[in-house]
Amino acid sequence: MQKYSRLFSSFDWLLALAVFVLLVLGISALYGIGLSSSPPDFTNVTKQLIALAIGTAIALILALSNYRMLRSYAGTLYAAGGVTLTMLLMFGVNRRGTTGWFSFGFFDVQPVEFVKIILIVAIAAILARRTRRIVRWKEFIATAIPVGIYATLVMLQPDFGSAALMIGAWIVMLLFAGLDKKIFLTLFASGVTFVSAAWLFFFEEFQKNRILTFINPELDPLGVGYNVTQAKIAIGAGKFFGRGLGFGSQSQLQFLPEAQTDFIFAAIAEELGFLGVMLVIAAFGLFFWRIWVLVNKTRDDFTGYLLIGLGTLLFIQMTVNIAMNLGMMPVTGLPLPFVSYGGSSLLSSIVIFGLIESVALRER
Predict the structure, then answer these.
(1) Domain map (residue ranges) of the chain
(2) Mean pLDDT over all residues of the chain?
(3) Is the pTM of this model over 0.85?
(4) Is residue 113 a contact partner of residue 159, using CB atoms and an 8 Å limit?
(5) In this structure, are residues 135 and 127 in contact, taking their beta carbons and an 8 Å threshold?
């Protein structure tokens, strides 16, 4: 008991506070959206609370466990993730043009949300073995192969947003490790080539339409363009104090599409106003600041790369989700961490939180 008492005394409570605020805002928004049905339907709230209860238990187990064990099992975890993605292509359920879910009746599981974490662990383990200060071709190729395999399997679903998220986190980890400038320029040129090839051979029509409509919303004013337009209206309608929980016209009259997932930020902005938006941003700011503090305290490379990778996953998702609500980026389907509805998304975010807390407990 004394051991666990010491561990909990070293718990990063500021990090936990940030997560708590985001969870409360997300569930409150889902409750408000549920009031728009007649009669009110709180099924999504119930499912989210169940996922939260499961995730909390998992986070506690991870926090009390030694995260360094992941380094020893990185290869095994990576292989299991690859098998899962392969099976998903054969036996997965198609949702809105993407074969990305296993269906278990009452609930669906989206494996890519957890595979992203496995990939970060694998990359961190590879980079931690390097002996040179600068990442050169040997280390670059050693990390590029596992990233390429996962990204290809995810693209075949097709889920370009998740594949781009994996690649983005990988690049940030390489830059943090000290990527050679020549390799960076080569990587940039390859990225342009990859995006061009993806547009020609991998992108589905609905994905192309999202990008084209982002450039010119008038191309699809009643489709993807309509979604972004309604999100902007909802954000503007909230003003400073918001219209009140359950009183947002855009979400209550169901003008705002996917209000519980892609556009939950707009729903919060409408019902809680500028104050709610600032609370969301402040909570994320506190969350990422605590991660950066831990990075500066780390005593080994694996821990540093793991924190940078996990933090980057959530940072990219947050940035892209908020930007697409504001019409600054194409709609990609990336959820807002800890806030958007979705059991798999919430569980993966809480797993990341548990791993970061495990680092915090042991670094202290």
Answers:
(1) 2-363
(2) 84
(3) yes
(4) no
(5) yes
